[in-house]
């Protein structure tokens, strides 16, 4: 007896003791595995001229209420002994990687999220046997498991290539009627519901009726093996014949998402290249979306055969969150390598890119709330898109971007900002801060807001880089409010005190100046040069940063503030008090700018010292 790998063990336990209400999905998982196995063999046949006939492929579903068995058979590629061990001894690689990466919080969610495939059989069966023979090999093998303890693999008999998965259905319990998975009606209904679009016939023994007056009563019903799925993929059907529920169901099953998609795009294009595409925008970002592990791409079918599970080239990075598939009439023997250099594929990818953009713009126009949900999940990616590739896509993406407006208290587009600009305003102002409140209370905001100018709130690391990459929107330049402080006044009047502060702070600041534009605030930190304080923080936080990026820090002091009066009083009379106060004021400006203190304990000690004076 072999043991399951650790993480598989966990999943298995969840499966076996499952309280998951959607147990019935096991059937679609096993049928989809059968279909994948046929796809693999058929693809091989096409590329290596094995001469197999598409018409000869089928999936058989058999049930035997007396033996309490349900089996799913295919004549696909099958598995060798090693593959059996590798594929069924551990959860499908994709599944287990995903599983390991999460915190395994909600057990139920795991099933919905990852569609743990083969193992879902254990939700309804207490024993599973798999007999399989790999195409082109002599020997067949049996894999058998009664659940969590482990599994065994033995030589077995099987006439031809393919796989049969036999489930030994659990006895009924008080809460659960497992018998239904041995009943024609339920099985037929489940296949119709979840697997109708499978492109190979799913055959099953069904009860048929004879009508007519001369039919004897005992001959009225008879049983016959029939194809129970329509075999027409959803995306091949005209849009009007597909309901949103069907799209949702297809999406959930195919892309292992517990939630229905936020947006469905079904398109059929005829022209330079003919293709059909079925695309979905998930309602939430997958947990690994913003990590290196996430892989973008669309499934690619040609003439009804899946030739790529996930082809990255079909999706631009800015829309990497889109899931879906493309079905085209590309040459059948196209190999995975030549896909990259295929001009038809390139044309399809370009088409898809603008289709997604158009649909998102429509969503923004027609369903603002839904768009905002979308933007919350994937806006970051769009903003990266603006900045990435030296701004190549900035114009393409700019109208999809939202930023919070200080004035409106909600998310707005650049177009909305520009349309609402005050008389005489030429630039688009933004402030970098954690929230609208933080930006609003920055010393520089007061004067701008008083003039009726709005300020966009940049709260994510990428934001300022994106805007700098755009430079302007409809000829209106972006301008950081941090660069907005009027030039120093009363320079001569307080020069000695200001120089004194600079001397205390040393290299921490490049300049100390007086500014009456601070309103009710005493101090304010701004950046003098090209690199803003925020950019300094972001750049230095990058994994390969050398810590070398330095913003030019300018400390502005309000000469009308009470504390400045105090500074002047200490200056020349109480040097230690002057130094302490200067340092505290600088640290406060750092905090107000939303940055971290270099020496928090020193700051606290100095404030305590001042409080004890
Ligand atoms: P997934 O289908 O997501 O890869 P599964 O748990 O459903 O995950 O299946 C695990 C693996 O077992 C598959 O990737 C495949 O290699 C293999 N497998 C499962 N069922 C079959 C089958 N009927 N024929 C051939 N291989 C299969
Ligand atoms: Mg599977």
What does this structure look like?
It is built from 19 helices and 22 strands. The protein folds into 4 domains: 8-229, 2-Layer Sandwich (Heat Shock Protein 90), CATH 3.30.565.10; 236-376, Ribosomal Protein S5, domain 2, CATH 3.30.230; 402-480, Rossmann fold; 495-611, Four Helix Bundle (Hemerythrin (Met), subunit A) (Up-down Bundle), CATH 1.20.120. Helix content is 37%, strand content 20%. α2 (25-48) crosses α6 (184-195). It has 613 residues and is α+β, with helices and mostly antiparallel strands. It has an 8-stranded mixed sheet, covered by helices on one side. It binds adenosine-5'-diphosphate and magnesium ion. Adenosine-5'-diphosphate (ADP) binds next to α2, α3 and α4. Magnesium ion is lined by residues 29, 32-33, 117.
Distance between the termini: 77 Å
The amount of beta strand, in percent, is 15-25%
Number of domains: 4
CATH class of the largest domain: Alpha Beta
CATH superfamily of the largest domain: Histidine kinase-like ATPase, C-terminal domain
């Amino acid at each position: 007896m072999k043991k399951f790998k650790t993480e598989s063990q966990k999943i298995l336990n969840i499966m076996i003791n499952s309280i998951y209400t959607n147990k019935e999905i096991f059937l679609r998982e096993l049928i989809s595995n059968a279909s994948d196995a046929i796809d693999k063999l058929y693809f091989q046949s096409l590329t290596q001229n094995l001469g197999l006939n598409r018409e000869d492929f089928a999936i058989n579903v058999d049930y035997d209420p007396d033996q309490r068995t349900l089996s799913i058979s295919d004549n696909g590629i099958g598995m060798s002994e090693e593959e059996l061990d590798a594929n069924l001894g551990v959860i499908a690689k994709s599944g287990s990687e995903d599983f390991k990466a999460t915190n395994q919080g909600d057990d139920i969610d795991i099933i919905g999220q990852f569609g743990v495939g083969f193992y879902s059989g254990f939700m309804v069966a207490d024993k599973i046997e798999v007999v399989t023979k790999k195409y082109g090999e002599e020997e067949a093998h049996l894999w058998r498991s009664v659940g969590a303890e482990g599994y065994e693999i033995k030589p077995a008999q099987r006439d031809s290539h393919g796989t049969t998965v036999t489930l030994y259905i659990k006895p009924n319990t008080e809460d659960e009627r497992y018998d239904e998975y041995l009943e024609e009606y339920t099985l037929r209904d489940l296949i119709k519901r979840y697997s109708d679009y499978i492109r190979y016939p799913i055959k099953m023994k069904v009860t048929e009726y004879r009508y007519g007056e001369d039919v004897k009563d005992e001959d009225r019903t008879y049983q016959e093996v029939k194809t129970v799925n329509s075999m027409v993929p959803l995306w091949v059907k005209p849009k009007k014949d597909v309901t949103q529920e069907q799209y949702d169901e297809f999406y959930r099953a195919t892309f292992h998402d517990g939630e229905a998609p936020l947006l469905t795009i079904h398109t059929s294009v005829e022209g330079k290249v003919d293709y059909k595409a079925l695309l979905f925008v998930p309602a939430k970002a997958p947990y690994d979306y913003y990590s290196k592990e996430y892989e973008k791409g669309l499934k690619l079918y040609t003439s009804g055969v899946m030739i790529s599970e996930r082809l990255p080239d079909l999706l631009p990075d800015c829309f990497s969150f889109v899931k879906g598939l493309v079905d085209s009439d590309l040459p059948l023997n196209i190999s995975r390598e030549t896909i990259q250099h295929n001009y038809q594929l390139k044309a399809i990818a370009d088409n898809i890119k603008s289709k997604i953009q158009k649909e998102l713009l429509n969503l923004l126009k027609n369903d603002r709330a839904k768009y905002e949900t979308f933007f919350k999940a994937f806006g970051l990616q769009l903003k990266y898109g603006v900045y990435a590739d030296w701004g190549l896509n900035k114009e393409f993406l700019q109208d999809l971007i939202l930023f919070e407006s200080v004035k409106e208290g909600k998310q707005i587009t650049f177009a909305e900002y520009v349309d609402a600009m005050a008389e005489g305003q030429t630039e688009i102002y933004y402030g970098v801060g954690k929230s609208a409140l933080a930006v609003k209370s920055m010393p520089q905001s007061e004067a701008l807001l008083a003039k009726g100018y709005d300020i966009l709130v940049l709260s994510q690391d990428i934001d300022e880089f994106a805007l700098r990459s755009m430079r302007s929107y409809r000829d209106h330049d972006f301008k950081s409010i941090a660069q907005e402080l009027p030039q120093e006044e009363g320079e001569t009047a307080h020069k000695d005190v200001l120089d004194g502060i600079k001397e205390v702070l040393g290299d921490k600041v490049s300049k100390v100046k007086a500014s009456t534009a601070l309103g009710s605030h005493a101090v304010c930190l701004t950046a003098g040069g090209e690199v803003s304080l925020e950019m300094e923080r972001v750049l230095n936080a990058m994994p390969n940063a050398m810590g070398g990026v330095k913003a030019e820090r300018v400390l502005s002091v309000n000469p009308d503030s009470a504390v400045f009066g105090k500074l002047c009083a200490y200056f020349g009379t109480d040097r230690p008090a002057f130094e302490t106060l200067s340092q505290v004021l600088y640290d406060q400006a750092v905090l107000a700018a939303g940055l971290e203190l270099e020496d928090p304990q020193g700051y606290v000690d100095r404030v305590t010292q001042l409080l004890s004076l």
